[in-house]
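Reader question, answered in our methods column.
A reader sent in the components of a multi-part assembly and asked whether the whole thing could be modeled at once rather than chain by chain. We filled in our standard form and ran it. Here is what they sent:
COMPLEX SIZE: two components
ENTRIES:
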Amino acid sequence: MRREIILSGAGGQGLILAGAVLAEAAGVFEGKEVVQTQSYGIQARGGASQSTVIISDRPIKFPEVLTPDILLCLSQEACERYAPRLREGGLLIVDQDLVNTHSMRTDIKATAFPFTAEAEKIGRRIAANVIALGTLAMVTGIVKLESLAKAIPARLPERNLAIALEALNIGARLPEARGAFSQ
Amino acid sequence: MRREIILSGAGGQGLILAGAVLAEAAGVFEGKEVVQTQSYGIQARGGASQSTVIISDRPIKFPEVLTPDILLCLSQEACERYAPRLREGGLLIVDQDLVNTHSMRTDIKATAFPFTAEAEKIGRRIAANVIALGTLAMVTGIVKLESLAKAIPARLPERNLAIALEALNIGARLPEARGAFSQ
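And here is the structure of the entire assembly that came back:
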């Protein structure tokens, strides 16, 4: 089973970090085949930022993401850019307060959570990326929450570890707070 | 100008970190177009680890590295795996104490430096990756040393910053200590 994931948002929302954590969680701590790619440049400077992760049980021969199965969007611009590429029946996960999926494609599953609002509740708006990872893990099952928790320390300064692990757990609890697929 | 770089070695030598630092240096601090890819899985568990970086002045349409222009190898196994892919006339940079390039291709430029030995001199064998980045910057000119220095803090714990910047400077001075292209 090969799954292609795009994590997208605006610059500064920590999507490259989120991609690195997801890749290490699946690759190092679950022994999956993983290819992770990030871009810097016009695309990033233009406002949208993205990290792509491919997770597979078998060696990955084609390392490029063309039609993602799962798309996380933390900004409207990123959503408008990447949602058209989502495969039919794919899963779109957005920040409910930052992204309007109205009049978006009807041939995909879309679900929205208050990632940034929850991050603001703990005083760290920047933690929305890790909250989103926690939710992504629970909704998609592509990676275990404990693997994400193991991957976080290698990627974050020690002083931010406690809050990141809290953010991960907040994200993990968001889907059960309501039916995940409201749309 | 598009340059394709592969940083390779054994697991634990910090090549993924080195790739991330190189990508951020060129992408964030020099405004270049950059795509960085890393793999986890059988390839990494098999002993060889690699990170690829593409740096370009123009948007990168094809994000995969096929024939690298520059190849860094910190292990013999990685060198034997990736050197055949180096483009004709490309540059191979190896750790002189860990990699034997004898009977390697004659249609490429090869040069060797004591990255790991220098890292051991400062009591941090793990710093060989950053030393190699410093040398790579000086020998290839693909990125400025100061951009690497700016990119390091985002990727390393604060307690390791001073030693990493020292390692970078050690690496930068290695080429002038002798003629860089001995072969």
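What stands out: Chain B is about 35% helix and 20% strand. The first helix of chain B runs from residue 15 to 27.
Send us your own complexes using the same form.
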